[in-house]
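Escalated from tier 1: tryptophan holo job.
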Amino acid sequence: MKIQRIVSGMRPSGRLHLGHLHGVMENWLDLQKRYDAFFFVADWHALTSEYADPSGLTGNAEEMVVDWMAAGLAPGSSTIFLQSYIKEHAELHLLLSMITPLSWLERNPTYKEQMAEVKDKDLHTYGFLGYPVLQTADIIIYKADGVPVGIDQAPHIELSREIVRRFNYIYKAEIFLEPATLLTEVPKILGTDGRKMSKSYNNAIYLSDEPEEVERKILTMVTDPARKRRNDKGNPDICPVYLTFHRMYSSDERLEWVRDGCTTASIGCIECKKTILPHVLDKLGPIQERRRELLGQKGLVREVLEEGGRKAREVAASTMEEVRTAMRLDLFNGNS
Ligand code: TRP
Ligand code: SF4
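Tier 2 regenerated the structure:
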């Protein structure tokens, strides 16, 4: 069957960087043209780990939506909303939590990984364990048949399908569809220190960085550590500048020029980096222009989220009526 409706969410991380742009946003822009697309800010999901200090969430959500729209996400093509605006997600999450076996959640690989890795927050909570149950509610409440996500999220969508099957079996209902995972090929975008580009590593180039800032970040980015001096030969295959920027922005001819120049030390790293700059700035220019326009229209983000929220709620509310009926909780259906 052909996929028709897709849903995807992003936790509110604030301003977007090039990793988001090339990893997620460009895919979303393509999807919004082809499907009935729902994109939302997963602020409740952020709360599962940020519950102790939620002060930044609202600001981050707004900044992120500005960047979504600056990148080209359009309220005319996508339904853009905030998760916590649609209380029905919480109701469905609660009801699904009744039927979700603990063992399914305890064996979830992202849960095990985060519990082992994250040391600065206490994640021994009911909410954190239930993260994929909330995610399931986000998806199936819109009867989405496809969910575009990176490979790290694939186990959660698998779990969504299991929860759907269990719900349909227990309540003899056919309300929900089993969502397919639309795997997004995420190119590995490295930051200025050579690690994966991430806000928390402080190594990111943001969509909102001024051209001088972009230039400074690229010119100081780490390269092949073997090239300490201008005469040292290098290896592009281990150079983050090559692996991320040249690969993404340079023509085949340019790639050859870099490989040749780097391995023979006939070009220097600064010269090599300078050839990328115009490409990055060309990419960011129109985004930044739209960003300025958007910021000039006060209250716009709020309006977009409200409008999208209304559209989303209509669908969510109607699904919940079906759910209450299937679960015999329908005494007050449609009468609240
Ligand atoms: N867990 C997702 C992430 O961290 C975000 C998310 C929340 C999501 N709800 C979703 C993604 C529903 C897709 C569908 O990236
Ligand atoms: Fe990297 Fe270019 Fe320097 Fe080679 S010349 S190490 S590819 S920045």
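Residues 208 and 288 are 6 Å apart (CA to CA).
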